[in-house]
Amino acid sequence: MLPPLTRPASSTEPFGRSVVISNEMRDRSRPGREGRGPDGTRQLLWGIDLGGTKIEVAVIDPDTPAEPVGRLRVATESQRGYDHVVGRIRSAVDQLQDATGLQRPRVIGVGTPGTTEPATGLLKNSNTVCLNGRPLGADLSLALGVDARLANDANCFALAEAVLGAARGRGVVMGLILGTGVGSGVVVHGRVLDGLHGIAGEWGHNPMRDEATPCYCGRAGCVETVISGPALERFYEARRAESVSLPDIVRRAGGGDAHADATLGRLVAKFGEAIAAVINILDPDAIVIGGGVGNVARLYGDETRAAILRHLFNPELRTEILRPTLGDSAGVFGAALLAR
Ligand SMILES: [Zn+2]
Question: Which of 71, 88, 133, 240 could potentially form a cystine with 58 if both were Cys, beta carbons 3.0 to 4.6 Å apart?
Answer without folding.
Answer: 71
